[in-house]
Specification:
Number of helices: 12
CATH topology of one domain: Rossmann fold
CATH architecture of one domain: 3-Layer(aba) Sandwich
Order of helices and strands: HEHEHHEHEHEHHHHHH
Strand content: 5-15%
Distance between the termini: 47 Å
Length: about 240
């Protein structure tokens, strides 16, 4: 089941204006699903999550771009940062908008490499998890503070009870949870965290002590929706990790 995303029109507009469109965001927020849904029949798809594709993109980038000639979606492009220089050379030569659609989960690494290699050549979108309007299918326009605009939203939105509101908050906005997913929220987010820890955090921060990092995340979760206090967070981490 595909859930329509509000950012679709913006993505297509950027694709008409830039040779490269980069969609970044956390894992499983729907980046790949979005680009596949918007792709025309002639747009190829390749994922660098697959080892042989990653190796080819890293060590044989010219052959890689010949095999996956644009228009193309390159999923998880951060696994082959060397490829960006060859994409730059390609778009400078052909000067055709919308040739490359890239997705990247490790936004820190992805954006650093992309900003250095594709400056002025790429439109960038940061995709978040589902908003309430996307879940309900209302897809409001740009936010406005006028009384008439807010009243119009109220008239279109389906009212939610207090119980339904808290259930929505606890469930969150990951698309997988709204696609006939039968496991519990706990099971989903436990698996999600393990993937995040094993695939992203180790590469970014060189985390050696997984248990200490897990406890650190627990402390951070208790501070959610509160004013940021590094002192309180530090006290919590020291107590949790060392006591």
């Amino acid at each position: 089941m595909y859930i329509k995303r509000k950012i679709e029109d913006k993505l297509l507009t950027l694709s008409d204006s830039f040779p490269v469109v980069i969609v970044t965001g956390a894992r499983q927020v729907g980046k790949t699903t979005l680009l596949k849904h918007l792709s025309q029949a002639d747009r190829k798809f390749v994922s660098l999550d697959i080892p042989e594709n990653k190796m080819m993109a890293t060590f044989e980038p010219d052959a890689f771009l010949q095999k996956y000639e644009p228009p193309v979606v390159i999923d998880e492009f951060q696994y082959a940062p060397e490829l960006l220089r060859y994409i730059k050379a390609y778009v400078d030569k052909h000067k055709s908008c919308g040739d490359f659609w890239l997705t990247g989960s490790q936004s820190f690494v992805s954006m650093k490499n992309a900003s250095e290699s594709l400056a002025g050549r790429a439109g960038i979108i940061n995709l978040y998890s589902l908003s309430n309007s996307e879940i309900t299918g209302t897809l409001f326009g740009e936010y406005e503070t006028s009384f008439d605009g807010l009243q119009s939203r109220m008239n279109r939105a389906s009212p939610m009870s207090k119980r339904e509101t808290f259930e929505r908050i606890l469930k969150g906005g990951m698309p997988r949870l709204y696609e006939n997913f039968t496991a519990t929220n706990y099971d989903y987010f436990s698996a999600y965290f393990q993937t995040y820890l094993s695939r992203d955090i180790k590469d970014l921060a060189q985390v050696a002590d997984e248990l200490s990092f897990y406890k650190f995340i627990q402390v951070c979760s208790t501070l959610a929706a509160k004013q940021i206090s590094y002192e309180a967070g530090g006290r919590g981490c020291c107590f949790t990790i060392y006591c």
